[in-house]
Design brief:
With 119 residues, the chain is an all-alpha fold. It has four helices and no strands.
Length: 119
């Protein structure tokens, strides 16, 4: 799968997770369709997709034994690294540590990992 295709898988999983887990009506930026997603965010999504995919491959598929929290944490850490790559001084919410993320975001990150596992 190309990085662009992987980025789209990531973004679609994010949007689906936000709709599933966000309490109330999500901010429009959280569910922006792919066509309107900024390039930096597309690049970050593709990079994180690739990191998760490689992690799954290097573990010979044994990531299935990880807890949802472990899967979500991995996505969150990879995303945080991308925020530091793309922004000199990212917003605190973009680089928050796992315990500081809202539950809806933790659940969405775990969903993303599991979607990539199945792809």
């Amino acid at each position: 799968m190309s990085q662009v295709e992987g980025a789209r898988v990531f973004r679609e999983a994010w949007i689906k997770g936000v709709h599933r887990h966000f309490p109330g009506e999500p901010k429009p930026g959280y569910v922006t369709p792919w066509e309107d997603t900024p390039q930096w965010e597309r690049d970050a999504a593709g990079a994180v997709y690739d990191q998760v995919r490689q992690f799954i491959e290097l573990s010979d598929g044994h990531t299935a034994k990880l807890s949802r929290e472990q899967k979500g944490r991995f996505v969150a850490v990879c995303w945080t690294a991308q925020m530091f790559k793309h922004f000199e001084d990212p917003k605190p919410g973009y680089v928050a540590d796992w315990p500081d993320l809202p539950v809806w975001q933790q659940e969405t990150d775990a969903d993303i990992f599991e979607v990539i596992e199945k792809s």
